[in-house]
Amino acid sequence: MSNGINPVIQQKINDWRDKLAGSSNSNPLLDFRKSKKPKIEVITPSLILFDKLTGYESESISFKELITNQTEADLIKLLDKLGTEAKKTIKEKGFISLFLVLGTLTWFDTAKPQEKKEKDKLVSPLLLIPVELQKKGKKPPEYTLCSTDEDISINFLLVNKLRDEFNITLPETEILQNLGYEEFINAVRTAIGEKQDWQLEETAYITLFDSIKTAMIKDLEQNQELIANHPVLQGLALQEAQKNCSDIKTQISHKQ
């Protein structure tokens, strides 16, 4: 919960978030395998990528410096698709959808070890770094991976899921820059330490998350205090709380 926010309004924000997220694990932010978007796995160590793209003086990275599994021709095709779709999302929906994913957590969505099955297995992205692709030339084109003005974030859907259902608290996005990549990864490993069948892998992918609902959830998470101080929301949340309280009292009086 954010400090200084009325608990009733905080609950209203949480309710909105939960309704947007839904109860299904089909969202690619909870199960990366469900994504049908093109993706590029980057073999270059995650620490190098993190330091170059998120430092105080962030650097662009030429794809000539990156190690991937694709041939040059296949890599260019994938980059063309990612770049085109990312530009389309910005133009039509107004938000950045291209991300460098650092780290994935393989875990089971059940608290009972004896009931764990393959259907409960999820592979969730951990760190999301908003990026853009710059293209120069044509035959063959030269691509560069660049950071943006958007903040990097920890996967908010995963954070909420683990906190609400497993009482596991991951480090907050606000302290990520102070921790640095290695300390952050160590903190996550410590947080999930009792889950011996969960696995944190330091993988890296470039892919798209272009759901409007996902963007709305991210806005709710990152702007809670601003939203909570809006007079219209305060009125709606408090009015609904009073109505719920009145309904409960009525039900109790009818039973007596």
What does it look like?
The protein has 256 residues and is of the alpha+beta class. The chain folds into two domains: 58 residues, no CATH class; 183 residues, no CATH class. It is built from nine helices and seven strands, in the order H-E-H-E-H-E-E-E-E-H-H-H-E-H-H-H. Strands 1, 2, 3, 4, 5, 6 and 7 form a seven-stranded antiparallel sheet that branches. A hairpin with a 5-residue loop joins strand 4 and strand 5. Helix 1 runs antiparallel to helix 7. It starts with 6 loop residues before the first helix and ends with a helix.
Task: Offer a concise description of the structure.
With 256 residues, the protein is α+β, with helices and mostly antiparallel strands. The chain contains nine helices and seven strands.
What are the salient characteristics of this protein?
single chain; alpha+beta; 256 residues; 9 helices; seven-stranded antiparallel beta sheet
